[in-house]
# Entry
Amino acid sequence: MNTSEQQRYWLIELLAWWEGRVNTSDLVREFHISRQSASKSINHYLALNPDSLIYNTHLKAYQPSNTFQPHYLKNDVAEYLEWATRHTSPLGLNVHLSYDAVPLPPRHIQPEMMRQLVQAIREHRALEVDYVSLTHPDREGRILVPHSFVKTGLRWHLRAWCEKSQEYRDFVLSRFRGIPDLEQVSDKTGEDDHAWHTLAEVIFAPDQRLTPAQKEVIETDYQMQNGELRITTRACLIQYLIQEMQVNTKMLDPDPKAQQLVLVNKDDISEWLF
# Structure
């Protein structure tokens, strides 16, 4: 089996497993191939994995059967989310660079749950979900209207309107329990999520306790201009950005070499910190 065939089978499984449906248009759009070639790939996949997909004439798409088991996926939700949120896909690259990454523990996300979340986002529908947190470790029912997924370093979140709190919030995907129930179409499309649509600049600088030579090291690391690193992000993501930059905004580390960076414009963005 050649690489291009494996990539197509990977996408077939990715969409079937996490979105609950896949059709020839998905392959045509991703790989820039003809509809006939895309149909041929799906048929070849079915020949290798009989009874794995069932064609839904109403949706005009293949859906996973009850016995469907992926063979080309890592079965990690990050694999799907990183594909789905990229502007361009790296599939089909001719150059393969050697790399490695810090091994991080995967978060268990049920595919059946993801399918409901994706459908709710696509159709602007509300969801009835069970959610747990450290504050409320017992299952707590909520009505959410999701509009986006958010990656915040180690975790993936769902950005959604919460009927209980009457505001938009971030919900950790791995803390959902059970399968959400799709509800009615909602007028909360995310267009009125002020913190999502507000862009703000976060300014970092080297800890002033560092020597000039040490500051220069930090400035070069981050390609700072005039001794500052300026990053523009959505207002609701500011706290996550600060955490990822390992900047403590409440107290300085006694060792400036450990602190390295400080937040310069805390007062300007204080309303978005939590």
The first strand starts at residue 53 and ends at 56. Confidence is low (pLDDT under 50) at residues 87-98. Residues 24 and 38 are 5 Å apart (CA to CA). The beta strands are 53-56, 61-64, 125-131, 140-151, 156-162, 167-172, 176-185, 199-206, 229-234, 261-263.
